[in-house]
Specification:
The chain is α+β, with helices and mostly antiparallel strands and 234 residues long. It folds into three domains: 76 residues, Arc Repressor Mutant, subunit A, CATH 1.10.10.200; 79 residues, Alpha-Beta Plaits (2-Layer Sandwich), CATH 3.30.70.980; 67 residues, YebC, transcriptional regulation domain (Alpha-Beta Plaits), CATH 3.30.70. A four-stranded antiparallel beta sheet has the order 3-1-2-8. Strands 5-6-4-7 form a four-stranded antiparallel beta sheet. Helix 2 packs antiparallel against helix 3. The N and C termini lie close together (10 Å).
């Protein structure tokens, strides 16, 4: 079982709430803009296709999506957005990876430090945490269970692991991610979400799960923070 499944479930639920829509659309736009720098063709740019599909799933207006793609092509202020990865420690020494998309690095790091300090956490040095994680492709299916036949289909398509949480979660190596996603779509599996994630190689137990989840929520609520990963078993 991978780490932070309980919080990941909570995060997916938060994304559907209207009160979070404005902040969510801002983050989705940044993802699209950064992905579009590698080309605006959805057929050849896998990251852009993932970002646009996620935006559509979460009901982001078409005009917003098109503007975000144009910014990635150099029209507007999209060139100012940086993708940054911070390594950190949370309460009880748990490891954190914090992905950031920001047009103001100083603001982003200041806010992250403030949030971490309030939870007795701190930023780590480069390389202090990253080695504890591997990068994987993650597919969330619109299913809560699988038949034996469906499970075999997914494994034969290249999946590394299948987890049953609030929905079916499929993990795959980074180099097979695009192939698996396209194959499952061709086999009529409905994909709720797909992302490149950082997955902890080993997981640690924490005594105060609620405290850690409050920290993860606070980081996730920051407009510059795109994703947060932990090696905690929650």
């Amino acid at each position: 079982m991978s780490g932070h499944s309980k919080w990941a479930t909570t995060k997916r639920a938060k994304e559907t709430k209207d009160s979070k829509r404005s902040s969510l659309f801002t983050k989705l736009s940044k993802n699209i803009t950064v992905a579009a720098r590698d080309g605006q063709d959805l057929d050849t740019n896998f990251k852009l296709r993932m970002a646009v599909d996620k935006a559509k799933t979460l009901s982001m207006p078409k005009d917003n999506i098109e503007r975000a793609i144009k910014r990635g092509a150099g029209v507007g202020d999209g060139a100012n957005i940086e993708h940054l990865v911070y390594e950190a420690y949370g309460p009880e020494g748990v490891a954190l990876i914090i992905e950031v998309l920001t047009d103001n690095k100083n603001r982003a790091v200041s806010n992250i430090k403030h949030i971490l300090n309030k939870a007795n956490g701190n930023l780590g040095s480069a390389g202090s945490v990253l080695w504890m994680f591997s990068q994987k492709g993650e597919l969330i299916l619109n299913k809560t269970s699988l038949s034996d036949e469906e499970e075999l289909q997914i494994i034969e398509a290249g999946a590394d692991d299948i987890l049953i949480e609030d929905k079916v979660r499929v993990l795959v190596s980074k180099d097979k991610f695009a192939h698996l996603r396209d194959t499952l779509q061709a086999q009529n599996f409905s994909i709720a979400d797909s992302n490149l994630i950082y997955l902890a190689k080993e997981h640690v137990d924490v005594k105060d799960e609620d405290r850690l989840i409050r920290l993860l929520d606070a980081l996730d609520d920051d407009d510059d923070v795109d994703n947060v990963y932990t090696n905690a078993n929650i």
